[in-house]
Amino acid sequence: MKTFLRSTYSSQSDRAESSKSLMLTQTARDPALRRMRSEAQERALTAAEVHAGLLARPLPCLPSKFFYDHRGSVLFDRITRLPEYYLTRTEEALLPEAARDAVARVGPRHLVELGSGLGTKVRTLLGAMSTAGLLDSCTLFDVSEPALAQSLPRLAAERPGLRTSAIVGDFLTDLGALGPGGSRLIAFLGSTIGNIHPRDVPGFFRSAASVLAEGDGLLVGLDLVKDRARLEAAYNDAQGVTAEFNRNILRVMNARLGADFDPEAFEHVAFYDAEAAWIEMRLRAARACRVRVPGAEAELVLPGGGEIRTEISCKYTRPAVEALLAATGLRLEEWYTDADALFALALMRRTAERSAG
Ligand code: SAH
Ligand code: AVI
């Protein structure tokens, strides 16, 4: 299979600048919703990331955070209710007890949810904190501004006494915007950590540890290694919602970067790679095509059958998580799982020692 990318893109400096800066920009819409970057910075960062992704070999790829425009968040919400997608309902069944126990151990007053999406699970954690008489503030953190623009006002209306805020940012580069920790619990639910490449997970843990004070908590939802049939069914649902979600990334490229992808000319592919322990999602060109992506100064030429990688979704075991936690400033304290060991919530605590690196 031969894939070809032509490019005139030269400078990565905009990207470096925008990820260095932790300046937050307030939106006109809601002063409690802050953006990490101006629209121009965001466009430059998107262009650089997409450009780099399309150059990747052996497979061109698109960062999975670009699934989530408004339509993508709504499609993901539909995925969570599919019969094949056991992840959400299993985590939701574990969450009330895990939340109660985590709140009892950590005693947090401030809740942060990373990748909060439409913000449904945060209610369970807030309920546990409120019952314990501890609730003070809640910050939603997501790359999707439409999702935050929907979930933040709803949260504020539901809990009038609560200090609520939201940050539009990337949890891989922007956690510093949260400022120093103290009585803080960070929730990272839904197995979204699985969408981070394992080589980047220790760096993510270190950066989370840097915004936690000693004893603060990080509660992480993890999908667990299991039989191939169950895993592959979850990403190849009979109604084709996951396929539509997958193709949505091409619509986002068209809207944000003026690309001319024909989403209907791409077939959804999802399979389990047991060696890597991840589900991989791809889009396969039904026929040879040449796609212009002017906003990323790129042109992608794919043969018929040529593929683009759009997502990895890592499946974990407890030892694998413990190995990734080594020397990050976090330790694993509790592991809440269901009777069939489909999914786990891991409670991690900030240790006294400074994280390595
Ligand atoms: N937590 C919710 C939603 C999960 S969907 C649940 O458990 O159901 C994944 C969410 O993470 C989306 O809302 C998406 O916009 C967000 N996301 C994905 N990549 C991100 C990134 N790099 N930085 C911040 N948010 C990201
Ligand atoms: C958000 N994330 C954890 C989902 C997952 O399972 O990796 C995204 C998703 N991709 C396909 N279906 C759902």
Descriptive terms for the model:
single chain, 357 residues, alpha/beta, 9-stranded mixed beta sheet, 3-stranded antiparallel beta sheet, disordered N terminus, binds S-adenosyl-L-homocysteine, binds N,N-dimethyl-L-histidine
Descriptive overview:
α1 crosses α2, α3 packs antiparallel against α9 and α4 runs parallel beside α5. Mean pLDDT is 92; it is low at 1-28. A hairpin with a 6-residue loop joins β2 and β3 (33-35). Helix content is 34%, strand content 25%. It has a single domain (25-242, 316-357), classed as Rossmann fold (3-Layer(aba) Sandwich). The protein has 357 residues and is an alpha/beta fold. The strands form three sheets. A nine-stranded mixed β-sheet has the order 2-3-6-5-4-7-8-15-14, with helices on both faces. It has helices at 13-20, 39-55, 70-80, 86-106, 122-131, 145-158, 201-210, 228-234, 241-257, 318-325; strands spanning 4-7, 25-26, 33-35, 110-114, 137-142, 163-168, 184-188, 217-223, 266-273, 278-285, 289-293, 298-302, 307-314, 330-337, 343-350. The chain starts with a strand and ends in a 7-residue tail after the last strand. It binds S-adenosyl-L-homocysteine and N,N-dimethyl-L-histidine.
